[in-house]
Automatic annotation (TrEMBL):
Pfam families: LRR_1. The keyword Glycoprotein applies. The chain crosses the membrane at residues 20-39. The lineage of its organism: Eukaryota, Viridiplantae, Streptophyta, Embryophyta, Tracheophyta. It is found in: Membrane. Keywords: Glycoprotein, Membrane, Receptor, Signal, Transmembrane, Transmembrane helix. This is Uncharacterized protein. One of its GO terms (cellular component) is membrane. It is a single-pass type I membrane protein. Its main location: membrane. The keyword 4Fe-4S does not apply. SUPFAM superfamilies: RNI-like.
Length: 315
């Protein structure tokens, strides 16, 4: 497998071109700049390329067009373009690559475009479009990319079926293990679509405008949340438990939970004793709520609990 890494120039496969003008390294903080003609030659010449990772490479001088990746290796499985300062419309033909499983476009704030409109299917398992201006049609995406395991759509633009109905399409992604919808200005009641995603390990709905009660499904002892859920982030929403059956107590959560963020909400009541049974929890953030009562002594006996944040409550 041929790989173009990002940690400097010395590991780049030997060719008759020098694709990098300057290098970036986590040790020396040097910036890499990549010119368009160099990248095109790389894509054309490396015919067996399977992994291309250009993390933090400055590609602001690369003008994108719809055929930009037309000569990319058909063997390409991994394309990482995180924080590359890409601009313009992202080429749709990337989605025609028959073996592409990993596509990460994180933090290219001036990158626009949309998912392709042609009839396509993809083996994509990892898709990150967070902090881009790429328009996402949930119904289209969930129909075409049913193999997705990781989907990150933080601070994105959405088209097609309006919110909240569009989220029901996520139930088609039965292999999903990680889902982030952070900071999308979603509102209303917390959606229940995730209850059908039984492979889900990480769920991040933080930084939205959800209001009202946490769904009662979380309040039952036999919660139908995904059995393998390890990371649950509801931080920075507007949640109110006053009218629930248990009158404002924090929700019961899966015993498999390892990370639980629910800070910066309007929660109150006592910390339930069931939290003593969270045998795998190592981050528990209940800060900036109105939680009352005594702190369960069991929380002080969990040697594996590395972060316990109860600040800004009434304990």
């Amino acid at each position: 497998m041929m790989t173009i890494p990002v940690w400097g120039q010395h590991n780049i496969p030997q060719t008759n071109i020098n694709p990098i003008k300057m290098g970036w390294s986590p040790w020396f903080m040097i910036i890499i700049f990549l010119e368009a003609y160099v990248l095109k030659r790389m894509l054309r010449n490396f015919t067996n390329l399977e992994k291309l990772d250009l993390y933090h490479v400055n590609m602001s001088n690369v003008p994108l067009d719809h055929n930009f990746f037309a000569n990319a290796s058909l063997s390409l499985m991994f394309l990482g373009l995180t924080h590359c300062e890409l601009r313009g419309k992202f080429p749709e033909n990337v989605f025609r690559l028959p073996n592409l499983q990993y596509l990460d476009l994180w933090n290219n704030n001036d990158l626009s475009g949309s998912l392709p409109t042609f009839n396509w299917s993809t083996p994509l398992r990892h898709l990150v479009l967070s902090h881009t201006k790429i328009s996402v049609d949930f119904s289209f995406l969930c129909t075409r990319a049913k193999s997705l395991q990781v989907l990150s759509l933080r601070n994105c633009s959405f088209i097609g079926t309006p919110y909240p109905a569009m989220l029901t399409n996520l139930t088609q992604l039965v292999q999903l293990t990680s889902l982030s919808l952070h900071f999308n200005n979603f509102g209303g009641q917390i959606p229940l679509f995730y209850l059908n995603l039984q492979q889900l390990i990480e769920l991040d709905l933080s930084g939205n405008n959800f209001v009202g009660e946490i769904p009662q499904i979380l309040e039952t002892k036999n919660s139908t949340l995904p059995n393998n859920l390890e990371i649950l982030n509801f931080s920075e929403n507007l949640l109110n438990l006053r009218s629930n059956m248990i009158q404002g107590n924090l929700p019961n959560v899966p015993l498999s939970l390892q990370v639980f963020f629910i800070s910066n909400n309007h929660l109150y009541g006592e910390i339930p004793s069931s939290y003593c049974n969270l045998s795998k929890i190592y981050i528990l953030d209940l800060s900036n709520n109105s939680i009352q009562g005594k702190i369960p002594s069991c929380l002080g006996n969990k040697s594996y609990l590395s972060v316990l944040d109860l600040d800004m409550n009434e304990l």
